[in-house]
Amino acid sequence: MAAEPTAPEVPATAREWHLAARPQGWPVPSDFALVEAPVRALGPGEILVRNIDLSVDPYMRGRMSARKSYAEPYELDKPMLGGAVGRVVASEAEGFAEGDHVLHFFGWREYATFDARAAVKVDPDAAPLSTYLGVLGMPGLTAYAGLTRIAEIKAGDVVFVSGAAGAVGGIAGQIAKLKGAARVIGSAGSDEKVELLVEEYGFDAAFNYKDGPVVEQLRAAAPDGIDVYFDNVGGEHLEAAIEVINLHGRIVVCGMISQYNATEPTPAPRNLAQIIAKRFRVEGLLVGDHYDLQPAFVEEVSAWVRSGELKYRETETRGIDSAVDAFLGLLRGANTGKMVVRLDG
Q1: Using CB atoms within 10 A of its CB, is residue 180 exposed (0-12), middle (13-18) or buried (19+)?
Q2: What is the set of domains in the chain, with CATH numbers?
């Protein structure tokens, strides 16, 4: 007689990060709490996932504020949300079985029980699991949508990417080159990152924005001006791009990390009136508006990754204990490429 299948071993409790206080200015460790909480039993249509990789992203800073925005604020003393990939350890949902790997949005915890409709299966044999949080995930699609749909990138464009050694910026610059840009310029916050952009990612030029005024360094790198600016930083970078942008240029505003921890309103670019004479276009980018591009994105970008034409980097920390330090490091620019927290086990 065949033995009865054994139920998966699931702990009674597991750890999860809660927002303990809303940060004022730069977040500090005491704004967060690592809590031991019960692992909730499955209901109909739900799956239980043991998380393997957690995503750490700049937009999370905005959700720590109570201000109204495009995403609901995190609740105090409740589990934080974020991208994650993990392994299904139990299922009450049709189409999901123990052992499946899934991408979902219930990160910042070791185990997650949720409606299976919020999960997407991923193949760990096709690509490393962490890439579904980075180059083949939300950051990659952000870069792809921003350049192909909003900037309408075309052969011969001169493209400037700020925060170019980050998860989105590095991919954006490389996609621009692969789409035929004549010149791609990046900014980053260290000489090591500048070297990475030129030597590994194939940017035509890059500069350390800490070495001098951004506008002067951008002019030197783009003597004939720029046609597209992919903005991850805002502030001085945006003002410099407006100064150097050509007639009918396009600005994709993906992020403004230079302003995320400001406690006072920051001035708009002082040269915004140039939008009249130069007739450039500025459009904000939220990746959630562009998931219809997902099939084309996965097909095109995964091929570039497999062929080695598109390079990517990841900065990994280990263990759920390290998640807040990883997030604080991300805000300081400590990462190169995608910041990922690999859970133990």
Answers
A1: exposed
A2: 13-134+313-342 (3.90.180.10), 138-289 (3.40.50.720)
